[in-house]
Amino acid sequence: MIRDHIKAALVTAMKGGDKAGTGTIRLIQSAIKNRDIEARTGKAPADDDALVTEVLQKMIKQRRESVELYRKGGREELAATEEAEIAVIERFLPQQLSKDEARAAVQAIVAETGAASMKDMSRVMALVKERHASSIEPARASALVKAALAG
């Protein structure tokens, strides 16, 4: 389970004196706890690893956006800090599909559903998310589906 891996990594980082890693892992645990609280009132995913993966992917997306903004603002040291956090968070994500594997998975779903235009994007994305949520980042999946449906 990903949660157990995160807890073990926190202990290791604390014992090793890795302040940056410890801080990032604590942020991860906090985000997961917040998502658990939200899940009490809403619909929680049946699989705990799916919930944790969703939280991790969201954290990575936020940090990538921050890196872009920091670079535009000339704040390279803050961008480097965010990139270091991304590296720590990515350690806990399940293995991601390669570009070719992800493209093939999306093409298979498009063929299976008979999707022919951008009108079918939501149907295709729902299946991609259902089958490959932990192995394809949502932004990348969206781009692949758009490319597959566009031509």
Folded structure, characterized:
The protein has helices at 2-16, 19-41, 48-72, 76-90, 99-113, 121-132, 138-150. With 151 residues, it is mainly alpha-helical. The chain folds into two domains: 2-90, Hypothetical Protein Yqey, Chain: A, domain1 (Orthogonal Bundle); 99-150, Arc Repressor Mutant, subunit A. Helix 2 crosses helix 3 (48-72) and helix 6 (121-132) packs across helix 7.
Question: SSE layout and pairings?
Answer:
Elements: H1 2-16, H2 19-41, H3 48-72, H4 76-90, H5 99-113, H6 121-132, H7 138-150
Helix pairs in contact: 1-2, 2-3, 2-4, 3-4, 5-6, 5-7, 6-7
Query: Could you name the CATH topology of the largest domain?
Result: Hypothetical Protein Yqey, Chain: A, domain1
Strand fraction: under 5%
Largest β sheet strand count, sense and barrel closure: none
Unreliable residue runs: none
Mean pLDDT: 88
